Amino acid sequence: MNDESKKKKEYFTDTAISPDFIADSISKHSKKKNIGAHDIFLGQVRADMIENKTVCGIEYSAYKEMAEKEMDKIREETIVKHGLTCAHVLHSLGRLNAGEICFFVFVSSPHRNASFEACRELVDRIKKEVPIFGKEYFEDDSYQWKENKF
Fold first, then answer.
1. d(CA 33, CA 39)
2. Which residues neighbour 105 within 8 Å (Cβ) at sequence distance 6 or greater?
């Protein structure tokens, strides 16, 4: 197991992911000399139009214990498979407004191709395999469960 995975990872936050958090994550990694590439994915709540109603926010929920175990497994497998220096994942829970950042994936590696491939794989696997659920709220306070699309 990779040194970074030995301490308990925090995969969830109860707020939107702030630009300051993202900038701080990048800044911390600029001091590491064994990294040649970073790749970042930011998921943002969209104001989709569905059946003539506009999505104004999404409420995310998860069975945290199960989701954290699955995130750990996916993260560690991706680190090993792509030879990453590190990988970070953070997903918001609770209600977020359209325009807010809800999903952050940040990977680092010695070379760019590994970073590109690993970031996409992490995002796709998390969306497909981790039990995180989204309830889309409309301007009239009605809602529907969000279906993940791959």
1. 16
2. 40, 41, 87, 88, 89, 119, 122, 123, 126
pTM: 0.91
Give, in words, the CATH class of 9-28+35-145.
Answer: alpha beta
Tell me, what amino acid is at 150? F
Distances (CA, A) of 9 to 13, 71, 91, 97: 12, 9, 12, 26
Q: What is the pLDDT of residues 18-51, one digit of tens each?
A: 999 999 999 999 888 999 999 999 999 999 999 9
DSSP code for 79: H
Residues 111-140 as b/e (b if ≥16 CB within 10 A, e otherwise) read eeebbebbbebbbebbeeebebebebbbee
**Across-strand partners of 137?**
57, 143
H-helix or E-strand spanning residue 50? strand 49-50
8 A C-beta contact, residue 121 and residue 78? yes
Give the model confidence (pLDDT) of 52-93 as tens digits: 999 999 999 999 999 999 999 999 999 999 999 999 999 999
User: Which amino acid type is present at position 27?
Assistant: S
Domain range summary for the chain, segments of one domain joined by +: 9-28+35-145
